[in-house]
Amino acid sequence: MEASKGPSELSKHAIDDTITRPGTIRIDVTEASIVDEDVPVHDFSDGTQAVHDGNDIRLPHHTGVVSHVAVDIGGSLAKLVYFSREPNSKDLGGRLNFLKFETDRIEQCLEFIQQLKTKQQTLNGSQPGELCVMATGGGAYKYYDRMKQALGVEVLREDEMECLIIGLDFFITEIPCEVFTYSEIDPMHFAEARADIYPYLLVNIGSGVSMIKVSDPKQYERIGGTSLGGGTLWGLLSLLTGARSFDEMLAMAEKGDNGKVDMLVGDIYGTDYGKIGLKSSTIASSFGKVFKMKREAEHDAEDGCGLGNRDQPETEGISQPGRTFGPEDMSRSLLYAVSNNIGQIAYLQSEKHKLEHIYFGGSFIRGHRQTMNTLSYAIKFWSNGEKKAYFLRHEGYLGAVGAFLKRQPKNWGRRNSFD
């Protein structure tokens, strides 16, 4: 299908051929770019709303019908990718859209896909009943029957690890201004596209963490990981704070001071420990000050002041009388603890398997500056500056994009981003 033809010029034969044999369509990534603009809000039947993630991928030369969507259903989040024509425009092409839902609210995700059958897919030229759902992640199996029943369409399940690799390879090789490094001095330094991307280490941080060595598009293995991931942070902070969503927890961490909770090198030495390269602000023990402060508060309570062991604070989300730290401080401390742990394990795996490039993906990151700075610092510190942490603007959608691309023919990308 030629890029010069607009949607109105697509023949009925071409549309029918695309629908009946969707694997024969090519996604044209020529002059693809990331669109940074206001994101739409979607209203659900239960009165709640979902906000699209920003950074749609504009595909100005793609004119063919796309009769499928892709969803990556993890333990905490379901990530959806779908194609649409340019809104309110007669221009050629369209865009990839990105939207996520909490997995506990999977019905909202299915409701949205159901609406795509009658709205977006009609705009694309296909019919509602011809939609196909490409599903990956553990939820592709857990919710398979529910998806089939609720949507009444074909649901194809794809391997999670393979989709992650396909998605990451696509972003590295096909999308400009996607991959970047982070530092406080240079917050978003875009990496140059490389033809020789293999081998590399993918650190995918979702509810848990998987670390995957990728030698080529078809040769990869999970070489390690940790159960202390995004689900750990989410679970513990839901117990320790009044936050009700992951984004709210990250916002609290932005305002916190981990030095009120963590025991720092400066608390032990009174200064830096320069001989071994430790600054006074380096964390010696996460949450290391809490027990001492709790014990002092209990002693104060026995003397008739402060909070006792069984006293219950009445307010959420702010510091409480009788203690010198608040939920914001705990949020920042725990974020650092989880991120530092992941960063160090990732470095050790890269050393063990002789991998120079380390890519961090997964919905745990969400473009959060403290998270990226912690992971970057860990890789730089342990490698003595020889290695860098690489991030992506669509870090949470690697699996969903990979599943989306699985519906495509072989070698459709400019650089053959997958076989």
Question: How many whole angstroms does the radius of gyration measure?
Answer: 24 Å
Total beta strand runs: 18
Structural class: alpha+beta
- How large is the count of helical segments? 13
Mean pLDDT: 82
Inertia-based shape: globular
Beta-strand content estimate = 15-25%
Structural features, described:
This protein is an alpha+beta fold and 419 residues long. 34% of the residues lie in helices and 21% in strands. The chain is built from 13 helices and 18 strands. The chain has helices at residues 12-20, 106-118, 120-124, 139-142, 144-151, 160-174, 230-240, 246-255, 265-269, 290-302, 327-352, 369-382, 398-405, and strands at residues 33-35, 41-43, 49-51, 56-59, 68-73, 77-85, 94-102, 132-136, 154-157, 179-181, 189-190, 200-205, 209-216, 219-226, 263-264, 283-285, 358-361, 389-392. It has a seven-stranded mixed β-sheet with strand order 1-4-7-6-5-8-9, sandwiched between helices. Strand 2 and strand 3 (49-51) form a beta hairpin. Helix 6 (160-174) packs across helix 13 and helix 8 (246-255) crosses helix 11. It is globular, with a radius of gyration of 24 Å.
Kindly list the characteristics that best describe this protein:
globular; single chain; seven-stranded mixed sheet; 13 helices; 18 strands; 419 residues; 34% helix; disordered N terminus
